[in-house]
Amino acid sequence: MTFELDNNEKVTIVKQHLRNIAINKFNLELSIAEANSMLRPNTAMVDSYNVQLNDLTSQELTLSQKLAELEEQA
To answer: How far apart are CA 56 and CA 50, in angstroms?
Structure first.
């Protein structure tokens, strides 16, 4: 048995993913602020957080494009 998602279900799923990305980005922003507040900030850690933040921004852009496509189909 196979199931097909309707367009509204797909839109909801993409929006949930975008929300998760927003949460993860905020968490990383907090982690960057915390790491930079130390007397001796761990630059490798901050750099890693920034790479992760850039990756999330890229994912967010991809999902936003997908959402726009789905909303056009509605």
So the answer is: 10
